[in-house]
């Protein structure tokens, strides 16, 4: 499955400044592993030491927050848009 | 290529602010329009070089300052001459001794309402935005923006107008009419997004990383470390207005959780500076049942917050994915406080109770704090014999929809004395 991943500003040092990159994978876990192959170091920024999503990172597959889905096991259909976004406070 | 840094940060003059520091891993960064740690995504906050020396002298200096948040400028990330710049001068709102409400709730100690509806755009958001405006000026931004549940939109629109900045703010498309009008009247761009607040927030986060958002200061995104510090002034004011002492218990509403964490930070700073006596205080968080992810995590003993999809009349608190939720849990547990929630019906009852007893018309968030206070007293969690401060963070005129269905004229009569008598209204 080929997907497009939107990269937040603070991770663009790993993607040569690109704001969007292509990746392969049938689940979010596989997509992150594929990102790591091409952009070494990026996985450790998104995942903690136990391999879980860091608590201040939000990831969306299409429009769905993966915390409402299956987390890292969320299915990533062919052509899906994935966004990695730092959590922000509001009001 | 980073698109956000448009001014050299070497010359940034923001008073005692020395650097940005990651709240999760402690990594430090130069002052700039950044909000997340490049190592762990943790939130960045201001590291200070706070004034040293005689607390009495600092206290006198504060007391001689303007009747606004700028009296605390030595403790905030703002230039020393901030009070002379065009801004809305928010803060120093009333701390109301609520004896009638105390009797009604069975409080035998002192009960106060910190009434932030008295700010220029009628919510506590004027405090945080005023700080963000100074950061926007320092970093050379020309457009002020935000994602908002309503109150912030109005505060940004007004502050930008006064400061001579362009504004463009984003709100969920289905907000209360009062908040939409209040946000639009200041003449900036107001954009309704088809989705809830979390969707608006996500949109803004993406906009900020795109060339489309270049040169924009998002008060609660890339200016958030500065913006959030404005909530510390609630802690400073409460203590000063109590005669430079800590309250025993404070009840604070939770949306993102930022306000509660910064009030705690403000209290800790006052202790460290010797401005108040170091004694225990308890912090209580208040949510609406229809959006209570932090309350649910507190009750379940969890230290992380599972996001929810909000469904409550308390729209200013309807943040389903509260970024500072984990810190709220830490603070409530550390201080011996709690996090509790109330139903929409209890919120409306509490709004009416506060209005009826103290003449304060609170927005729904104020109904949440008063409702939770009542619930915690009844449950024996909040001690009624101590000094308690309850926050009202906004004006009821903004959320008329919440009380309108159950509030109206006692009677409608012909203009005659007979009709008045017949209606049973003569005392």
Automatic annotation (TrEMBL), chain A:
SUPFAM superfamilies: MoaD/ThiS. Pfam families: ThiS. Gene3D superfamilies: 3.10.20.30. It comes from the Bacteria. This is MoaD/ThiS family protein. It comes from Streptomyces jumonjinensis.
Automatic annotation (TrEMBL), chain B:
The keyword Lyase applies. Gene3D superfamilies: 3.40.50.1100. It is an enzyme of class 4 (lyase). Its EC number is 4.2.3.1. Its cofactor is pyridoxal 5'-phosphate. GO terms for molecular function: L-serine ammonia-lyase activity; threonine deaminase activity; threonine synthase activity. Residues 90-394 form the Tryptophan synthase beta chain-like PALP domain. Coiled coil: none annotated. It holds the Pfam family PALP. GO terms for biological process: isoleucine biosynthetic process; L-serine catabolic process; L-threonine catabolic process; threonine biosynthetic process. Keywords: Lyase, Pyridoxal phosphate. The modification N6-(pyridoxal phosphate)lysine is found at residue 125. The keyword Iron-sulfur does not apply. NCBIfam families: thrC. Belongs to the threonine synthase family. PANTHER family: L-THREONINE DEHYDRATASE CATABOLIC TDCB, THREONINE DEHYDRATASE, MITOCHONDRIAL-RELATED. This is Threonine synthase. It comes from Streptomyces jumonjinensis.
């Amino acid at each position: 499955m080929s997907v497009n991943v939107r990269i937040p500003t603070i991770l663009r040092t790993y993607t040569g400044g690109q704001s969007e990159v292509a990746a392969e994978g049938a689940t979010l876990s596989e997509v992150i592993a594929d990102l790591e192959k091409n952009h070494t170091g990026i996985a450790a920024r998104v995942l903690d030491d136990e391999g879980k999503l860091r608590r201040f990172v939000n990831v969306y597959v299409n429009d769905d927050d993966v915390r409402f889905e299956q987390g890292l096991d969320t299915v990533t259909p062919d052509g899906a848009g994935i966004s990695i976004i730092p959590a922000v406070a509001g009001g | 290529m980073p698109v956000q840094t448009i001014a050299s940060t070497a010359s940034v003059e923001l008073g005692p602010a020395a650097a940005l520091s990651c709240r999760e891993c402690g990594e430090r960064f130069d002052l700039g329009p950044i909000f997340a740690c490049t190592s762990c995504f943790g939130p960045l906050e201001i590291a200070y070089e706070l004034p040293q020396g005689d607390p009495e002298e600092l206290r006198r200096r504060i007391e001689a300052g303007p009747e606004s948040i700028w009296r605390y400028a030595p403790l905030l990330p703002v230039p020393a001459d901030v009070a002379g710049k065009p801004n809305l001068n928010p803060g120093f709102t009333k701390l109301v001794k609520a004896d009638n409400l105390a009797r009604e709730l069975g409080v035998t100690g002192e009960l106060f309402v910190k009434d932030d509806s008295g700010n220029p755009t009628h919510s506590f958001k004027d405090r945080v935005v005023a700080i963000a405006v100074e950061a926007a000026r320092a970093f050379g931004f020309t457009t002020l923006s935000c994602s908002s549940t309503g109150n912030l939109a109005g505060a940004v629109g007004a502050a930008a107008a006064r400061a001579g900045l362009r504004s463009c703010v984003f709100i969920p498309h289905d907000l209360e009419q009062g908040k939409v009008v209040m946000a639009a009247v200041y003449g900036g761009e107001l954009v309704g997004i088809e989705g809830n607040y979390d969707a608006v927030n996500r949109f803004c986060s993406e906009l900020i990383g795109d060339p489309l958002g270049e040169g924009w200061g998002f008060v609660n995104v890339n200016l958030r470390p500065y913006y959030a510090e404005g909530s510390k002034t609630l802690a400073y004011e409460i203590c000063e207005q109590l005669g430079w002492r800590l309250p025993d218990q404070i009840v604070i509403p939770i949306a993102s959780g930022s306000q509660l964490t910064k009030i705690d930070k403000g209290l800790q700073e006052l202790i460290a500076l010797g401005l108040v006596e170091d004694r225990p205080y308890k912090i209580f968080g208040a949510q609406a049942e229809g959006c209570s992810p932090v309350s649910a995590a507190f009750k379940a003993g969890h230290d992380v917050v599972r996001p929810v999809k909000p469904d409550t009349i308390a729209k200013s608190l309807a943040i389903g994915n509260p970024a500072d939720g984990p810190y709220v849990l830490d603070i409530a547990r550390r201080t011996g406080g709690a996090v509790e929630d109330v139903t929409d019906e209890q919120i409306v009852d509490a709004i009416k109770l506060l209005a009826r007893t103290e003449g304060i018309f609170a927005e729904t968030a104020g109904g949440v704090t008063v409702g939770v206070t009542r619930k915690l007293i009844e449950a024996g969690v909040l001690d009624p014999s101590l000094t308690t401060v309850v926050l009202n963070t906004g004006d009821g005129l903004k959320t008329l929809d919440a009380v309108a269905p159950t509030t109206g004229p006692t009677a409608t009569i012909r203009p005659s004395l007979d009709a008045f008598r017949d209606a049973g209204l003569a005392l």
